[in-house]
Amino acid sequence: MTTLNRIFILFLCTALLALNACGFKLRSYANSLPPELKTLYLNVDNPYGSFESLLKQALHSSGVTLVALPAQAPFILNTSKPVLITQNTTIGNTNEARVYNVNYSVKYSITDRNSKTVLPPQEARATRSLTLNANQLLESNNQLTMLTREMQREVITKIFNFLNSQEVAEMNWQ
Q: Which domains occur in the chain, in start order?
């Protein structure tokens, strides 16, 4: 082992120890969700939709137990059908590149098993811009599919960020 390799390994070990000593941890939603939300029933319009599948995966990976029946959970996470809106903002000749504003939004709320609202309806939204060449069609373009998937992940992150917020942590869950 060369001297340069030894110095690099020593530096790396020192950096890792310093990060550990100062309490640095990679962000995990599992530890920051209120304990009341560790067991949920997920009420969705389309249980097999792409957004709903991503949301289920995110909840599972953050340590939330999803139950099969609303009566089995103290709280229910309700989500509306996701809304995807594309708007052509290009003005002018059809031979030019087209620019679309793409909006993706989902409304969500939390109720208890008796349908009493615990968290009033909130909206998580993501917006992107998509530019297509004049010869590309929006409907048959893979870019919109990839962009939609990215926006779904962003919306899920926003939902988790709100559920991890101080406002939600201080709620009366009774």
A: 29-169 (3.30.160.150)
